[in-house]
Known about the structure:
By secondary structure, this protein is mainly α. The protein has two domains: about 60 residues, 434 Repressor (Amino-terminal Domain) (Orthogonal Bundle); about 45 residues, no CATH class. It contains eight helices and no strands. α2 crosses α3. The chain is elongated.
Amino acid sequence: MNERIKELRKALKLSQDEFGRKLGVTRGAITNIELNKTEPKPLFAKHICEVFDVSEDWLLTAQGDMFLHLDKDEEFDRICAEIELSDDDFIKNLLRSYWALEENEKAVIRKLMNGLVENM
Length: 120
């Protein structure tokens, strides 16, 4: 499981510090897990799965896909929870500002964003 935790962290493109913060532990705790100095407790493994939408089967046994397949609403809920827990004041202010706009102003922003997405 220790190797899969490291694999997950790298797949998420997170440093040990960032990964640990999202889980409520220190970088040192993540380092010890990745170096096989500490075996994660079952409750911690479950927490990893909940925070990152990881398949518990994959994490515990290496069977199946790494990530759960979420529908659009579940994925949106996960993103909102991640934003809420983050220190990213820019995205929080951006969302608050967008939500405060009048509908016609929101339509302009949506049109702009749709154009950007199409050009990516």
